[in-house]
Hints:
Blueprint: E1 9-13, H1 18-29, E2 33-38, H2 41-51, E3 55-59, H3 65-79, E4 84-87, H4 102-129, E5 133-138, H5 151-171, E6 176-183, H6 196-204, H7 214-225, E7 236-239
Parallel strand pairs: 1-2, 1-4, 2-3, 4-5, 5-6, 6-7
Helix pairs in contact: 1-7, 3-4, 4-5
Bound molecules: nicotinamide-adenine-dinucleotide.
Amino acid sequence: MNRRLEGKVALVTGGARGIGAAIVRRLHAEGAAVAITDVLAEPGRALAAELGERAAFFAHDTTDEAAWVATIAAVTGAFGGLQIVVNNAGVFKPGAIADTSVADVEWQFRVNQLGVFLGMKHAQLPLRAAGGGCIVNISSIAGQLGFPGAAAYVGTKWAVRGMTKTAALELAPVQIRVNSVHPGFIDTPMLDNNPPEANQAGIEATPLKRIGKPEEIAAAVAFLVGPDAGFVTGAELTVDGGWIL
Ligand SMILES: NC(=O)c1ccc[n+]([C@@H]2O[C@H](COP(=O)([O-])OP(=O)(O)OC[C@H]3O[C@@H](n4cnc5c(N)ncnc54)[C@H](O)[C@@H]3O)[C@@H](O)[C@H]2O)c1
């Protein structure tokens, strides 16, 4: 593996499993020190132990502003700085608008939208101190299309796309690049919430006729935070097997 991220420190929210864990593994393999943050402590600790040197787990709820301040302090204290932040933590609960409770709308808003906002608000401080850096926000093709049966989730993912472009403009003067990644249908525990027929329909809607792998999203993130993407900011990188075409 190319060690393009040697000497960099990365923080990945929701890094204990699924797409987040694949991003953790990829950035670590490219030489970065990686802070794995999640509300799921057991798999997060196990992943950090497996990776060993240059990896650590931090229990962290991204919806809690005070927890962001404490986590950034702990990560920079442990690794001596921070240059890369991946706002990946997210939740999904399907439901037609007529059937979705305010509590379910607020839950998805808090994790998917507020959590990303707080990540950009607080993580920019050590990135500024480092003289620049990269933020990648994980949106979805649900941030580029309408999806019947997922309006609450779709709203949060469109918000991530818009916040990303705004942050890219705000932070360009301090050399912080901000981009969004838009996965299609990816094989993770998140899909356990879907009825089986919805998962089959997802494969059929994908021109490549298969489900994506978390590693294929991690590869896109690694590109965006690496030196080959030095002139890329405010972009939305869709990795969906052709779904939105
Ligand atoms: N799987 C897909 O098909 C798909 C498609 C498009 C976008 N996404 C997005 O990719 C991201 C990762 O999803 P995934 O598929 O790996 O799901 P996942 O459920 O496997 O992983 C999500 C992780 O986020 C963590 N998390 C949830 N709430 C949190 C909080 N408040 N604070 C900290 N961590 C929290 C969970 O504990 C879990 O480890 C999400 O933003 C999701 O919306 C997934």
